[in-house]
Structure formats: structure tokens, C-alpha cells
Design brief:
This protein is of the alpha/beta class. 39% of the residues lie in helices and 16% in strands. The two termini are 17 Å apart. The structure holds pyridoxal-5'-phosphate (PLP). The site of pyridoxal-5'-phosphate (PLP) has 14 residues, from strand 8 and helix 9.
């Protein structure tokens, strides 16, 4: 894995991506899944515009950002070249800045945010949302408790602008990623229960889980979107 100070080169990103695709392929084969079920989101929060562009040149078509500031710059410049995913905590009053721009929000975790999205989206426009779940129950992690997820999604039934496409979680960092397996499995089981509700605006087919350290395990447990920062585009904040 290439992690250098300064902007990553196209060669760095291509090399990283080739290694990641190999790992994805191996995890899929262990789990009897198809590789095209797994979408790679390049998380560009720690890197420059240039490096985000390198990721697109290397073949990435999904970009993820977690702060409004970086999120807007990158969207302005690269909107035609990738789908945009907002993956960070989203304050309701700031949500309007990305509404209509970001196709996906991975951090829907409360009714006030849902109401804000519903109010601001007009003309039949929709936003694809992942409901964020704090499966580990760590106090420091965002998201709904697992037990709150189904009642929350049921309350969204009449929200015409919100499409619950899936569930998202962040596992705690573990030296041994194998330890995260149980959390990913719980999220998958919860996803299956939401899907079984058959609620029209909550098809809930996707699982956004797995980061640089644990994506192989997440894929074995059913991830359909993995969110990769450091291992794919590096971290330029110490440059
Ligand atoms: C930063 C971030 C990632 C990527 O983290 P890496 O460990 O660098 O791959 C993924 N998901 C979320 C929500 C993040 O904030």
C-alpha cells in the first residue's frame, strides 16, 4: 500500500486499487458472491481535489465525503464524473447545502434530519439514504441503536423524498478485523428484517459497511458498498 506525503500519484492510486480489487475478489469467492455486487466508494476526506481526480481516472465512480466544506468543492468540480456519497454526521441546518447534489446520504440517524430532507427536496426529487446504525453500541459512535431501526424506518413511510436504500455502520477499529464480523452480520440480519417489511420507500437492499482495515470481512458478511479512504487514496493531511 502506497501512503506518501503530498498528493498521491495516479500510479499510487492504480496500484492501491489493483490490490483492493484482488482482496475484494478473494472475499467474494470465499463468500460465494459476485464481485459486481460490491461497490467501492473512494473516501476523499483526507486528500486533495487532485487526488480525488486521480481516483476517478483510475476507474472509481463513487466518491465519499464527510464534511460539508470538502464535500461541496469536490461536488462542484467532479459532479459529472462520479456519484457522491455523504458519509459524515449531518447537521440538519447544514443539510440543505448538499441536498440535490449528493445522491446518497449514509448517515440518516434521526427524524429531524429526515424532516429537513423531506422539506427541502421538491418536484419529486428523492435522496437515497442509508440509515446509520450503531451496532457496536459504543458511546462514541453515531447512529441509531439496532432496536430503534425498524420503528424509525416505519415512521418514514410517508416521506416521499426519502428512499431507504440500505443500512450503514462503522465498526470500531480492531487490530484483528475478524473481531468485527459479528457486528457486520448483525447489520445484515437487520437489513433482511427491514427488507421483509416490504415498505415501498424502504427497499433496503444495500449494506454500507467495511473500511480500509476491515472491508474483506465486511464483504464476506454481505457488504454492497465499502468505504475506503487510506488504503485507496492515502491520507495527505500530514503532508
Ligand atoms: C473516514 C471514513 C471512512 C474511511 O476510512 P479509512 O479507514 O481511511 O478507509 C469510511 N467511512 C466513514 C464514515 C469515514 O468517516
Amino acid at each position: 500500500m502506497q501512503i506518501r506525503k503530498g498528493n498521491s500519484t495516479l500510479g499510487d492510486v492504480e496500484e492501491n486499487l489493483a490490490g483492493i480489487k484482488q482482496t475484494v475478489a478473494e472475499a467474494c469467492s470465499r463468500a460465494g458472491r459476485r464481485e459486481d455486487e460490491v461497490h467501492i466508494i473512494a473516501v476523499t476526506k483526507y486528500v486533495s481535489m487532485e487526488t480525488a481526480e486521480r481516483a476517478i481516472e483510475a476507474g472509481i465512480s463513487h466518491l465519499g465525503e464527510n464534511r460539508i466544506e470538502g464535500a461541496l468543492d469536490k461536488w462542484e468540480k467532479l459532479q459529472d464524473k462520479a456519484s457522491f456519497h455523504f458519509i459524515g454526521q449531518l447537521q440538519s441546518k447544514k443539510a440543505k447545502k448538499i441536498i440535490g447534489k449528493y445522491e446518497y446520504i449514509h448517515s440518516l440517524d434521526r427524524m429531524s434530519l429526515a424532516e429537513e430532507l423531506e422539506k427541502r427536496l421538491e418536484d419529486g426529487n428523492k435522496v437515497k439514504c442509508f440509515v446509520q446504525v450503531n451496532v457496536s453500541g459504543e458511546a462514541s459512535k453515531a447512529g441509531l441503536d439496532a432496536a430503534e431501526v425498524i420503528p424509525f424506518i416505519q415512521r418514514l413511510e410517508g416521506f416521499s423524498a426519502i428512499e431507504v436504500v440500505g443500512l450503514m455502520t462503522m465498526a470500531p477499529y480492531e487490530e484483528e478485523p475478524e473481531k468485527t464480523r459479528g457486528l457486520f452480520r448483525e447489520l445484515r440480519e437487520l437489513r433482511d428484517r427491514v427488507r421483509a417489511l416490504g415498505q415501498p420507500n424502504a427497499p433496503c437492499e444495500e449494506l454500507s459497511m467495511g473500511m480500509s482495515n476491515d472491508y474483506a470481512i465486511a464483504i464476506e458478511e454481505g457488504a454492497t458498498y465499502i468505504r475506503l479512504g487510506t488504503s485507496l487514496v492515502g491520507n495527505e493531511t500530514n503532508a
